[in-house]
Amino acid sequence: MGVKVFDFRLKNALQTEKIWYNNLTNIVKDGRLCMQELLDSFVFYMAGARESSQNTVVSYKRDILKYIEYLRENGIFKISQTDRMTVVTYLLQMKKSGKAPATVSRSLAAIRAFYSYVIASGEKIKDPTANIIAPPADKKQPGFLTAQETERLLSEPNITETKGIRDKAMLELLYATGIKVSEIIELTMDDINLKQGFLRCRTATHERVVPVGKAAVSAVKQYLDKARPRLVFDDGIKYLFLNRSGTKMSRQGFWKILKGYGKSAGIKKAITPYAIRHSFAMHLLQNGADLEAIRQLLGHNEISSTQVYSKIMDARLKEVYEKAHPRA
Fold first, then answer.
1. Considering its fold, how many domains does the chain have in total?
2. Mean pLDDT, rounded, for 69-97
3. Highest mean pLDDT, choosing among 12-21, 150-159, 278-287
4. Mean pLDDT, all residues of the chain
5. Which residue, of 59, 96, 237, 326, has the fewest CB within 10 Å?
6. Which of 155-159, 174-178, 285-289 has the highest mean pLDDT?
7. Structural domain harbouring 226
8. At what angle do helices 54-73 and 84-96 cross, to 10 degrees?
9. CA-based nearest residue to 108, from 130, 124, 123, 126
C-alpha cells in the first residue's frame, strides 16, 4: 500500500530527507497501519515538518500513548477498528476520572491531529474526531503577586554566591519581560543585548523583541561577569542560563528554584513561572499600560488572551468600591 504525501511541507521534507520516506513506508504492515509505529512517525513529523515546539511534541505523544493504551485495554489493536464512539467514550472516561476540562481538550486536540495524520498517510477511514466539541475550559483567573510580594521574591537570592547571582538574574529577567519559562531557558548569548536593553524571543514560527528594564540589565550583567564564567565547562555552549553541570537550565530545574525562593520569602500563594508572567502583565496594567502594548510584550496572538487581565482589574476595582463607598 502506497503512502500519500499529505502536506506541502512534508513533501519538501521527503525530497530533502530520505529518512522521512523510509519512516513512512515502514509503518505499513499487512495492509494496515501499525499504531505504535505510526505514532513514532507522527511524532517525527510534528518535530520536523510542522516544527512544533518540544513541549507540544512531548505532550501530544504522551496523550496519544494513553489513548493507544486505552484502545489495547479494550481489545482494539487496529486504528481502523475505532470510530466516533471510541473517541467519545475515551474522553468521557477521562472526565469521570477527574481530569480537568483543559486536559481533556488537549487530549482531543492531540488525538484529532493523530487521526488527521493517519488518514493523510493512506488509511481508509473516516475521521472519528470530526464534530466532537471540546469541553469548555474552567475560567480560572490567573494568579499573580502583589508588588510587595514580588519585591520579596526578587530579594531572596544570595548574590554573594554563584548560584544566587544566576538565580537573581533569572528572576529579574522573568519579571522584567514576562516571558515564559520555556523561552527563558532557550535564550542564548546572542538573544540579549544589554547595551540596548532588549532581548529577542524566538519560536519555530514567531519572533518578538522585548525591552529589559535597568534592574534586570544590572542583574544579568553581574551574572555574565561573575557567575556564568564559573559555570561554563564547554566554551561552545551558547545558552544564557546554565545549571551547575554547565548545561542548559531545564524547566523542572527552574520551577524548583522558583518554588524554593517563594517558600523562603514566606509567600503563601503558588509560585510558578506563570504567576510571574501574570504579575508582569497585571503590574503594567495597574500602572497605566494599554492592553495592546501588553499583548505584544506577552506575545499573544489575540487581544482576547490579554483582556483577562483587564477583567481582573475591573473586578478588583468593583470590590474596592463596594467596600469603601458609603452608598455602594
1. 2
2. 91
3. 150-159
4. 81
5. 326
6. 155-159
7. 147-324
8. 100
9. 130
Of 10, 5, 18, 12, nearest in space to 47 by CA? 10
Q: Up-side HSE of residue 319: CA atoms within 13 Å toward CB?
A: 6
Q: Which amino acid is at 179?
A: I
Which residue would you say has higher pLDDT here, 25 or 274? 274
Extract the C-alpha cell encoding 296: 505584544
200 in the same domain as 115: no
Between CA 174 and CA 278 the distance in angstroms is 11
- Between CA 251 and CA 261 the distance in angstroms is 16
Domain annotation covers residue 249: yes
Contact assessment for residue 312 and residue 282, using Cβ atoms and an 8 Å cutoff: yes
Tell me the Cα Rg of the chain.
24
Do 295 and 192 reside in the same domain of the chain? yes
- The vertex-295 CA angle with 279 and 166, nearest 5°, equals 45
Residue 237 lies in a domain: yes
> Any idea what the CATH number is for the domain that residue 100 is in?
1.10.150.130
- 33 has which bridge partners? 28
Residues 167 and 288 in one domain: yes
Given a contact cutoff of 8 angstroms between Cβ atoms, the answer to whether 4 and 122 are in contact is: yes
**Is 129 inside any structural domain?**
no
Q: What pLDDT shows up at residue 50?
A: 67
Instruction: Answer yes or no: are the C-beta atoms of 295 and 307 closer than 8 Å.
Output: no
Question: Cell numbers at residue 147, please?
Answer: 508588588
How does pLDDT run across 163-189, given as a tens digit for each residue? 999 999 999 999 999 888 889 999 999
Report the C-alpha gap between 194 and 279 in whole angstroms: 23
